[in-house]
Structure formats: structure tokens, C-alpha cells
Specification:
The protein is of the alpha/beta class. The chain has a 5-stranded mixed sheet with strand order 2-1-3-4-5. Strand 4 and strand 5 form a beta hairpin. The chain has 6 helices and 5 strands. It has a single domain, classed as CinA-like (Maf protein, Alpha-Beta Complex), CATH 3.90.950. The chain is globular and about 40 Å long.
Length: about 180
């Protein structure tokens, strides 16, 4: 895996995603746990983002994954907040609640300490387009800032690839 985009490269990736969404008349929303709004803030920095960014929710606390993003409480009790099932449910829930074309769900461990047996850098990225929800497990290196930026860059890259029609289905999960 290439080094995650940061700084200007992350901003350019966000602009690329915005242009691709705009060209298709599509929108996106995000439910962000470990990234705590970084994805939405990065996309919102792109001029004209209001045409493609529907909204998002920072669901850092486990109970907010249910309250704000609609993740079933029994799913969280069974699989925990850091799981592919939770990432899928976050993506689908936020897509539905924000009436967006695409939903992104990000959950994981930024570090420095493990959480519920998951090491720092473990991230689950959910991407829902309605007809299909895919989940990818990421193992990102670095400190908290690098893991969070890497998760956002990976989410933008996954959405860009889905929009381009060349995204392979990886560990597809439907909540």
C-alpha cells in the first residue's frame, strides 16, 4: 500500500472526489468515529462542496453510532464498535439519514493504545451506494494523526474508485 495522502495531497484527493461526484450528480455523507469529522471537514474545504457533501456525524462515542447513524444496538453489542459490520452499518445508516447517494462509515483505533483487542492503525472503512455496501479493513501505520489522515485518504480513494467504476468488491458486507 502506498503512503497515505496528507496535506496538499489529501486536499487534492478531496477535490478529485468532489469533481467526480459533481460530474455524476451524486452526493456523499459520512459517519466518522476515529476520524472525528476530518473527512467532512476536508471535503468541505473544497470550493463548491455544498453541491456534493450532504452532511455527516461524528460518532466517536459508541452510543452515538446508534443515535446519530442508526447502527442497531444489538449489532454493536454482538460485534463491537470496531468491526466490519459496524463500518457497513455506519455507511448505510448515514447514507439513508442524510439522503445521500453514497455513505461512508469509518471506525477503528487511532492509537496509541489498543481498543477491545484491536491494535492502533486498525480501521474499517464502509462504503455504501445503496445497492451495495463494501467494507475494507485497513492497517495504517503511524501516530494518531497519520492513522486518521490515512483513513480519510483511503475513504476518498475508495469512493473515487467506485465512481470510476473500477472498484473491486472487497469483503462486501450488508448490514
Amino acid at each position: 500500500m502506498a503512503a497515505p495522502a496528507t496535506g496538499a495531497a489529501l486536499e487534492e484527493l478531496a477535490a478529485e472526489v468532489h469533481r467526480a461526484l459533481l460530474a455524476r450528480g451524486a452526493t456523499v455523507a459520512a459517519a466518522e468515529s476515529l476520524t472525528a469529522g476530518l473527512l467532512c471537514a476536508t471535503l468541505a474545504a473544497v470550493p463548491g462542496a455544498s453541491a456534493t457533501l450532504r452532511g455527516g456525524a461524528v460518532v466517536y462515542a459508541t452510543d452515538l453510532k446508534t443515535t446519530l447513524a442508526g447502527v442497531p444496538a444489538d449489532l454493536l453489542a454482538t460485534h463491537g464498535p470496531v468491526s466490519p459490520q459496524t463500518a457497513a452499518a455506519l455507511a448505510e445508516g448515514i447514507r439513508t439519514r442524510c439522503t445521500a447517494t453514497f455513505g461512508i462509515g469509518l471506525t477503528g483505533v487511532a492509537g496509541p493504545d489498543p481498543v477491545d483487542g484491536h491494535g492502533p492503525g486498525t480501521v474499517y472503512l464502509g462504503l455504501s451506494g445503496g445497492e451495495r455496501t463494501d467494507v475494507v479493513r485497513l492497517d495504517l501505520p503511524g501516530d494518531r494523526a497519520a492513522v486518521r489522515a490515512g483513513a480519510v485518504a483511503s475513504a476518498f480513494a475508495a469512493l473515487r474508485d467506485r465512481l470510476a467504476g473500477n472498484a473491486d468488491r472487497v469483503d462486501g458486507v450488508t448490514p
